[in-house]
Amino acid sequence: MIVARYFGLTFRSTLRTNLFRLSGPLIALVVYLLLRHIGAAEAAMAGIVAWMAIWWISEAVPLAVTSLLPLVLFPILGIDTVSGTAVNYGKEIIFLFLGGFLLALAMERAQLHRRIALRIIDRVGGTGPRLIGGMMIASALLSMWMNSTSCVLVMLPIALSLLDGDGDPALRKKLTVPLLLAVSFGATIGGMATPVGTPPNLVLLEIWRDRYPDRPPIGFGQWMTFGVPLMIVYLTIAWLLITKVVFKVPNTHLSSPTEVRERLKALGRVSTSEWWAAIIFGITALLWVTGDDIVFSDTFTLHGWRYWTGFEALTDAGVALFGALLLFLIPVPRMGNDAPIADEEVNKPPFTLLTWKYAEAHVPWGILLLFGGGFALAHGIDKSGLAIQLVAGMQNLKDLPHSVMIAAVSGMVCVLSELGSNTAVASLALPILAQSAEAWGMDPQALLVPATLAATLGFALPVASPMQAIVFGSGRIPVREMVRVGIWMDLVGIALLTLLFGW
């Protein structure tokens, strides 16, 4: 009986997987045939988008494997060459991920993340909803002043430590997905509150300076007048969705206050390895936060260290890799009370915070490939001309009520950002939207700002943003769960942008 049941489940699972595998190319063919009138390259690209979306969502094929499709399909269909496509798998931001992952691994290996996590539980309380709220608020506040991607890289090891603690196993299992999504969602929403919070915001500021040099720049204070209220409302709704609607997080303690304090006491004094991990991570985070200029108004700009040092070419990715390299160079004591590094290599030289063997085994290399596939997809949408076709369709929006126009633009940009880099989507869509606004006699800012914020949306797929990709890289979030709550987050975001800018 048990054997029969097992083979029955296996058969159904295999059949379902094979159906999804077949549906990808079949639906791609149908999309191509239906859209041939817009152009062969555009129709082919639309088919590839549908194909990859089906495989990503269903996980019928490993996500990293799906991400390789552009390297094969783009040359065959005449969209781009292999070399032109392959460049997208080595984008700068991928190396930012790599550096961030290595820094997070060092915190975990030194067990610093456990100490930080216990401190957070001690401060915010140990119930599921309070933990989720605390992590969401912390991520949002950090993301207001530092790059959202960097923020998630800072917060993820702390969240993982909360989940790997000694609390109730059943509760920890229930908290896994909502707590990790809280980190990503909090960082994404917090990035909307300031001009420096997320890359699409910076894209808008650059386009605004170049296209409208005679107009006042969009200052820090002006942005925060709509960004901060949006953040507060959006965070509240996100917390309610995660804890009360989608996951129904139980209001029970992961660990009692007494247990938490006992575990903190048991950790003892901060070890040498923990100090070095904290110092390197802290220096890296400080460089992330203080590198760029902050424009408060026409008359006041707070310059970052890149301005003062002349190291304009040293981006956040370079900073992350600088910090990561130090992890392989800083000597620490061998295993003992002073060096609580938990792995099999601790008594083998070299005695450093990280070894390549450890990094090689623990870095989620597939996620780096996954995000490269997202960049390649966004590149193909641009290269094929499909993006122009999509945006050109907005010409029909000029006669619609303003609120409907904002909703339609936000929805379109949000959908595009789900399938590729939000930065790439913003860079592609904003110039076209600026031109459209001028042709319609609109204030460009009234269209560009909500479109920029909509590019930051994208909560449903791992490839939608670096924040989503990083938390997915933990290996603890099924794509279906991300889609289940992410669609609601996208719809709420579009509704809030419509209410804020459409009236």
Descriptive overview:
By secondary structure, this protein is mainly alpha-helical. The protein has three domains: 2-90 and 365-501, no CATH class; 91-110 and 271-362, no CATH class; 112-267. The protein is 70% helix and 1% strand. It is built from 24 helices and two strands. It has helices at 2-35, 40-58, 63-66, 69-76, 82-86, 92-109, 112-124, 128-143, 148-163, 169-190, 199-211, 220-246, 257-267, 272-290, 305-309, 316-327, 356-362, 365-383, 386-392, 402-418, 422-440, 444-456, 466-472, 479-501; strands at residues 294-295, 301-302. The chain has a two-stranded antiparallel ribbon.
**Total discrete domains:** 3
Strand order of the largest sheet: 1-2
Give the class from helix and strand content and strand pairing. Answer: mainly alpha
Q: What's the mean pLDDT score?
A: 80
Figure out the total of helices: 24
Spans of at least 5 consecutive residues whose pLDDT stays below 50 are: 1-9, 335-340
Shape: globular
Strand content: under 5%
- N-to-C SSE series? HHHHHHHHHHHHHHEEHHHHHHHHHH
Terminal residue distance:
63 Å
Helical fraction: over 70%
Main beta sheet strand tally, sense and closure: 2 strands, antiparallel
SSE topology:
Layout: H1 2-35, H2 40-58, H3 63-66, H4 69-76, H5 82-86, H6 92-109, H7 112-124, H8 128-143, H9 148-163, H10 169-190, H11 199-211, H12 220-246, H13 257-267, H14 272-290, E1 294-295, E2 301-302, H15 305-309, H16 316-327, H17 356-362, H18 365-383, H19 386-392, H20 402-418, H21 422-440, H22 444-456, H23 466-472, H24 479-501
Antiparallel strand pairs: 1-2
Helix pairs in contact: 1-2, 4-18, 6-9, 6-14, 6-16, 7-9, 7-13, 8-9, 8-10, 8-12, 9-10, 9-23, 10-12, 10-23, 11-21, 11-22, 12-24, 14-16, 18-23, 19-21, 20-21, 20-22, 20-24, 21-22, 22-24
